[in-house]
Specification:
By secondary structure, this protein is an all-alpha fold. It has two helices and no strands. Helix 1 runs antiparallel to helix 2. The structure holds flavin-adenine dinucleotide. The site of flavin-adenine dinucleotide has 9 residues, from helix 1.
Length: 81
């Protein structure tokens, strides 16, 4: 058994979820096609999927804070051009 997409790595709502899920699908399909056993295929897939999704999660760490902010943007000081 293995996991992919949101089940493997739920991301914050910043437009990356399916963009991380689709490469999972491709990697898993290729791994199944190129390995003799399901176990080898899953191992090969997870070797790629886990670091990639971890890297994305680390990149987005804290990025959701702005979505939850209660402070309004400062429109008065915004450039009027
Ligand atoms: C409002 C919103 C906007 C988004 N915008 C973006 C975006 O702009 N860019 C982006 O990259 N990502 C976006 N995402 C995230 C993206 O939709 C998900 O990351 C992606 O759909 C994950 O795909 P998945 O196949 O892993 O899971 P899902 O798409 O959730 O698919 C899981 C499927 O499993 C089914 N299921 C659940 N339990 C069972 C069960 N027990 N038996 C059988 N079936 C079951 C569900 O019905 C569902 O069809 C957005 C998500 C939301 C909610």
């Amino acid at each position: 058994m293995t996991l992919l997409g949101d089940a493997a790595h739920l991301m914050p709502p910043l437009g990356v979820g399916v963009n991380v899920a689709m490469p999972d699908v491709c990697e898993l399909a290729l791994a199944i096609a190129h390995h003799n056993t399901t176990g080898q295929a899953i191992h090969a897939y997870e070797e790629i999927m886990l670091p990639r999704s971890t890297e994305m999660a680390q990149l987005l760490d804290g990025a959701v804070d702005g979505l939850l902010s209660t402070e309004l943007p400062d429109f008065a000081s915004a450039d009027s051009h």
